[in-house]
Amino acid sequence: MDTSLADPGLWRPLAALFLAAAVVMGSPGPSTISLTAVGASFGIRRSLPYAVGLIAGTIAVLLAVAAGLVALVTAIPHGLLVLGVLSAIYILFLAWKIATAPPLGGRDAAARAPGVAGGFGLAVANPKAYFAIAAIFAGTTVIAGDSGLDAAVKIALLSLMIVLIHLAWLLAGVSLSRWLRDPVVARIINLAMAAALVAVTAAEFL
Question: Name one GO cellular component term (predicted).
Answer without folding.
Answer: plasma membrane
